[in-house]
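Hi support team,

I submitted a single chain yesterday and got back a structure, but I'm not sure I'm reading the token output correctly. Could someone confirm the output below corresponds to the sequence I sent? I've pasted both exactly as they appear in my results page.

Thanks,
R.
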Amino acid sequence: MKNSVKILSTFTFIWLLASSFITRPADFGGAWVLFAGKYGGEISKQEIAAQTGITVGGCSKDARVSTFTVSITKNGKTKSYTTDSGNLTAEMSTQLRSLNKGDVFEFNHTKAWINDGANHVNVRDAKFTVIDKSAR
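Hi R., thanks for writing in. Yes, this is the structure output for that exact sequence:
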């Protein structure tokens, strides 16, 4: 009995440790938005300020974003901005840089060209929450 508990505990520990290294969405397959090297979650103002656009992960290396919308929720009000490239517009950059701790933004309605423009695919959304990096 003791050996069984010990084996189960060891297996659980190893499984949890291995799971902590997963750096992609839990539902594997497909393409997803990458912003600041992340596919969603917490992001600092410093990380936001360093970005000029979004990219695509989970598919061919030549994938390029053709259109996306960013929905920004600040002080409980949501505004959406759309562009026909993978680059942030000046207005998007300004609005993202004005966000504070707890504000949320989401990249959605993203499409990308893959395989040298042979296929136009939908890309999974990515939702971010602004954090205060100095508090971490």
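A quick pointer for reading it: The helical segments are 2-19, 45-49, 90-97. Let us know if anything else looks off.

Best,
Support desk
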